[in-house]
Amino acid sequence: xxxxxxxxxxxxxxxxxxxxxxxxxxxxxxxxxxxxxxxxxxxxxxxxxxxxxxxxxxxxxxxxxxxxxxxxxxxxxxxxxxxxxxxxxxxxxxxxxxxxxxxxxxxxxxxxxxxxxxxxxxxxxxxxxxxxxxxxxxxxxxxxxxxxxxxxxxxxxxxxxxxxxxxxxxxxxxxxxxxxxxxxxxxxxxxxxxxxxxxxxxxxxxxxxxxxxxxxxxxxxxxxxxxxxxxxxxxxxxxxxxxxxxxxxxxxxxxxxxxxxxxxxxxxxxxxxxxxxxxxxxxxxxxxxxxxxxxxxxxxxxxxxxxxxxxxx
Amino acid sequence: xxxxxxxxxxxxxxxxxxxxxxxxxxxxxxxxxxxxxxxxxxxxxxxxxxxxxxxxxxxxxxxxxxxxxxxxxxxxxxxxxxxxxxxxxxxxxxxxxxxxxxxxxxxxxxxxxxxxxxxxxxxxxxxxxxxxxxxxxxxxxxxxxxxxxxxxxxxxxxxxxxxxxxxxxxxxxxxxxxxxxxxxxxxxxxxxxxxxxxxxxxxxxxxxxxxxxxxxxxxxxxxxxxxxxxxxxxxxxxxxxxxxxxxxxxxxxxxxxxxxxxxxxxxxxxxxxxxxxxxxxxxxxxxxxxxxxxxxxxxxxxxxxxxxxxxxx
Lengths: 313, 313
Known about the structure:
alpha+beta; Glutamine Phosphoribosylpyrophosphate, subunit 1, domain 1; nine-stranded mixed sheet; 32% helix
């Protein structure tokens, strides 16, 4: 089948001055993922590549540019899932590696476990040959400003609101289906500005931040983490599709259901096993992009679908 | 409505010499929970009380008696959820508190977050007035023997198998509905013998180990953690019930579905919002008990329902 990759760069009340950086960033990232699919690579490698690209880009709240906890530290988390056998890898409370998604991928392939946190994640990563970086090298000016603003007049869980001229950073995620029909999903985040030490959000939780099942589809979510994990947002979308709802309707229904029940916003991107696309967000904005039929489709506003020609080189 | 409490003491290949301790333990624990319901207390307080009782009982793999990681340490996790508003609290990588479930409960009531791990969970607990105990005071002889046996010829993820004369310890959980029709669920565990440092299992993950929704019902799960979290077992049961399947059928279908897909065993206990009971396990044994209509029902073998008279004092 035709391979497809669909990504997001985070849902939230993204300020206008952050829109361009995010749109540029999701286009770069979706191309990085699609190149792998176009060369016959796996959905897993494609979603990792797209997320890596956004982890390196300070326009996004993942890897470099992650927001800071109350102690001024980066504490990142990520998950990745393979739809063929439901195998999964996730890490949390990662402080000194630039690419949490690659450690999560290694958990999927090389660990008897699915989820490793804190000191254990570091020990696992070192054992698998990953190299630490100084934690402060992951801190961007934007992230410092976001914590400052949070400490002055912040509201927890609205990290991505980006008061004034800052913020607007967002969790990142990717869903892909490769030419063999295999689905994979990856999600990575720095969490929320001003979070407590040790706070774990929805991103590394299979069923909340990430879900992939070759028999149904794949979902990556973003938004208010505590609400997403209480609602099991990714799995809720999967279950609607399992019962016959199409990808777009399922995504909209579950995101809306969560926002109605829990009074916080979120967004999600979804691919069905047939390659149908679902994109919905109840927040003000969510950057997203996908490549299908030699076109890049992308957007960040409600009811906005921009489109560029794209020929894989 | 008539309050009900249903609990489990863990699924696994429990050896015969551990059967009596577990049956005695679940009867004590279910009474501890039911007393609160009978006095008009909340489902949340009832499930906490039942789980506390099992955390103190070395027959179970939670609190005192938790199994040990590869470094010979206890690292516990727990979650609790309120069906009225989907509010949840969870902790992981807790090393020196005797009652992880009470810290999880405090996360539910007092934190803007839902899930806190490691050092952060300790800081939160100390801030809320919990007192540490020496980590080694939580280690039982059985847990030490289980790690020894695992290191000699263990198979990860089969903790509860209890090779030879040991093991048979199990995750604990409770589901209750109070006289107001509110549902709560609590689950607590020491994880699996010989787990890696930092390993996080299904127990603290909302949707995997625990789920409660007043509009549908409540579920607590036990068994092979990595499989339960990949399958989102608790949420899968909830979604079957939401679509009209009764509690017992939903529990059996989802546990069987997980075991067929992922080739590992699990068990779950379920209450519907109407107070219907679901109990199923694909493992050799799972201890369980519930109190309804002045009787304690309990069992540990397949197709076994024992029954004692019970009058709340």
